[in-house]
């Protein structure tokens, strides 16, 4: 009997050890596979993003730790695969033409450009002024993007009883031979929609700071009656209902600056990076807190102060950081809000896997970055489908609580 038991125990032990060895070897196999996947996709995944949204580097760990985050991370790997496929057709932005800092510094004092197309009555047409002015950075040639924004989240009119107005912010196109008739097209567009602001500076990445300055002084001059402003990119999805809901509890005569705030970002000192900033241009080790340019909110009062302050701060080629410097000048701490995902959580690809393209997820958020024209269109229509029922209604409320979480050092303009 005893021998029998002993035999059983030995047998069990033996089996357990065998199982452990098997599991261990499997694990090793998986992690090896993962490593390979990472190293092979990393440069590929990074390249198209830089190519599409140069001022929005990755911030991958943003949502880790939440149950929702897990879902997002898993869909990110799908996005990686997708971007790998993109890569075969899109030429990599491998060598962005070197930025001429000397030239930039020499011309830094040249910071006033004419307004070629104005909408002087944009805010006067609304009695008492708009509740929310939506200002969207756009390039002249992005006619389709503007069109889809107009028809979806950027609609003018009443949103939950609050008046919303819209303007697009344009500079002159870099490549004029590509679209010789651009100016008359833009003027026609302006006559049709009355939402175009066009300034006489070249619309380049490093001139976005000029766009920032000129928009703020335009708002100060032509739209002082607005209560709040949302400023963002054309490739974002904005849940304007959520913005209005949030803003109803705020006072426009008080300071307010809310977005996806990046703390303690360090200037890039490697020459080959697109975000390279030499020490002669910025000597400090970290940037002031700034909002990711995908989208942020400010009050009318803050707009006036910033307009003044940005006029006094020296030009800096990265517009998000420049605005952070203006905020620092008026001693205003920007507030991080979890609803702003300006670095793009994932690229929800519409057709093949509808699960990751979940409108209920977007219902919780305010701003989501890096969407294609068709995705914005589809998302808006899914969200406004009366049959949409999201089971996690409680989470919707939760998402609007203030979270005064500060992030650790981030290297937003880093690798
Ligand atoms: C400008 O656009 C034209 C037509 O699309 C193209 O042939 C040309 O190479 C472009 N020039 C530059 C400098 O990108
Ligand atoms: C900014 O725009 C001005 C005016 O069009 C132009 O002279 C300058 O080269 C542009 N700067 C950059 C960095 O693109």
UniProtKB/TrEMBL annotation:
Gene Ontology terms describing biological process: poly-N-acetyllactosamine biosynthetic process; protein O-linked glycosylation
Membrane-topology annotation of the record: Single-pass type II membrane protein
Pfam families: Galactosyl_T (PF01762)
Entry keyword set: Glycosyltransferase, Golgi apparatus, Membrane, Signal-anchor, Transferase, Transmembrane, Transmembrane helix
InterPro entries from the UniProt entry: Glyco_trans_31 (IPR002659)
Compartments where found: Golgi apparatus membrane
EC number: 2.4.1.-
Main location: Golgi
Keyword DNA damage: no
GO molecular function: hexosyltransferase activity; UDP-glycosyltransferase activity
GO CC, one annotated term: Golgi membrane
Family designation: Belongs to the glycosyltransferase 31 family.
PANTHER family in the cross-refs: BETA-1,3-N-ACETYLGLUCOSAMINYLTRANSFERASE, UDP-GLCNAC:BETAGAL BETA-1,3-N-ACETYLGLUCOSAMINYLTRANSFERASE 9
Protein name: Hexosyltransferase
Organism annotation: Salvator merianae
Source taxonomy: Eukaryota, Metazoa, Chordata, Craniata, Vertebrata
């Amino acid at each position: 009997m005893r021998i029998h038991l002993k035999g059983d125990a030995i047998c069990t032990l033996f089996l357990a050890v065998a199982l452990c060895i098997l599991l261990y070897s499997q694990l090793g196999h998986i992690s090896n596979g993962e490593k390979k996947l990472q190293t092979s996709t990393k440069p590929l995944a990074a390249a198209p993003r830089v190519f599409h949204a140069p001022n929005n580097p990755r911030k991958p760990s943003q949502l880790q730790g939440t149950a929702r985050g897990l879902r997002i991370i898993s869909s990110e790997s799908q996005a990686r695969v997708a971007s790998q496929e993109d890569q075969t057709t899109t030429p990599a932005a491998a060598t962005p033409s070197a930025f001429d800092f000397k030239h930039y510094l020499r011309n830094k004092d040249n910071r006033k450009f004419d307004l070629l197309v104005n909408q002087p009555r944009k805010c006067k047409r609304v009695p008492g002024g708009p509740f929310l002015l939506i200002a969207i950075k756009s390039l002249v040639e992005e006619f389709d993007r503007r069109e889809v924004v107009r028809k979806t989240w950027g609609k003018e009119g009443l949103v939950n009883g609050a008046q919303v107005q819209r303007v697009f912010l344009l500079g002159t196109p870099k490549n004029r031979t590509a679209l010789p008739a651009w100016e008359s097209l833009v003027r026609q567009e302006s006559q049709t929609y009355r939402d175009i602001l066009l300034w006489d500076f070249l619309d380049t990445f490093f001139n976005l700071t000029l766009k920032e300055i000129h928009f703020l002084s335009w708002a100060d001059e032509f739209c002082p009656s607005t209560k709040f402003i949302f400023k963002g990119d054309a490739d974002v999805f904005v849940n304007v209902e959520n913005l209005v809901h949030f803003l109803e509890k705020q006072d426009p005569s008080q300071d307010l600056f809310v977005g996806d705030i990046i703390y303690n970002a360090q200037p890039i000192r490697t020459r080959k990076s697109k975000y390279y900033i030499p020490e002669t241009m910025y000597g400090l080790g970290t940037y002031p807190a700034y909002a990711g340019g995908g989208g942020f909110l400010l009050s009318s009062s803050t707009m006036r102060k910033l307009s003044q302050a940005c006029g006094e701060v020296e030009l800096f080629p990265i517009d998000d950081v420049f605005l952070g410097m203006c905020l620092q000048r008026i001693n205003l701490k920007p507030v991080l809000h979890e609803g702003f995902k300006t670095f793009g959580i994932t690229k929800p690809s519409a057709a093949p896997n509808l699960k990751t393209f979940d409108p209920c997820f977007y219902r919780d958020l305010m701003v989501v970055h890096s969407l294609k024209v068709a995705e914005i269109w589809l998302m808006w229509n899914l969200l406004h489908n009366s049959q949409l029922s999201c089971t996690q209604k409680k989470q919707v409320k939760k998402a609007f609580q203030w979270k005064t979480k500060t992030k650790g050092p981030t290297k937003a303009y880093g690798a």
